[in-house]
Amino acid sequence: MDPLQRRLLPSTTALAAFDSVCRLGSFSAAAVELTLSQAAISRQILTLEERLNTTLFVRNGRGVALTPQGVVYHKTIQEALGLIRSASLHAMSGSPSATLNLAILPTFGTRWLLPRIPKFVSEHPEVTLNFATRIGVFDFKSEGIDAAIHIGGSDWPNAKCTFLMEEVVAPVCSPSFLKDNAIVSEHDLLRLPLLKMRSRPQAWDDWFSSLGIDGKQPGTMSFEQFLGVAQACVAGLGVALMPLFLIRPELDDGQLVIASRHWVRSRSNYYLVSPEGKESSKPVSAFRDWLLRETAEFCKSELAVDFHC
Q1: Residue 249 Cα distances to 180, 245, 254, 255, 257, angstroms
Q2: What pLDDT, on a 0 to 100 scale, did the predictor assign at position 309?
Q3: pTM tops 0.85
């Protein structure tokens, strides 16, 4: 190996020290994480900067900050260290197994995704799945999550959002509630308790606007999860806008009925989200390809047509 090639291959100790300082923001914190002295961390960073002939950090009285060159270098080095760790784990285990830590939406996960997961496991026995329930945007890095099923927009910061399918909603309630509160026209809903999802505060506004109805909505309850909304409807507490494919059991057994045949496309869509640096990993890529096939097949099915999803 010639001198230039050797220069372009810093020691993993120096790279690990650099990555630790970048993530933790100080030499002292990196020293604790790597069980080295602060002086040793400083030497590793100085050696790396001399080897690259580049200043990676700006030192100041409050700590350290990455230079523009340091920011670019760290992004690539972080990915490379992750690949080295994965390769080492595979070599140690003697098998090409991989782990996918997946965050799922509570209702979508239990009602739609999990019944299909055996097909993924059958196709990819080398991937070990770990599930966590999450709602809304969170920090992938601190949570240790590789990918997430997300409902909303495609604006998750520092992540790749892959569109899965749209969401269509319609008003539902319990049969007894509908019997006691006759709905002759959609205007009648303005006098009834309208249950809401906190993640979709404008859902009812959009529904009424699509009909050209302008009126003050009554005060109502709000919920974090669709199953909570569904249970409130079953209990006769009001009317809710629901994606019908997620409440098929309640519709099939008559616990819930459709209160209006006016379906509206939600502002929210379903996405698979993966953080930068993870989107091309084998477990994430395998799951993304499989999930895209599953959602495409579902959206073409008679069930999807019947439930307008």
Answers
A1: 23, 9, 8, 8, 11
A2: 44
A3: no
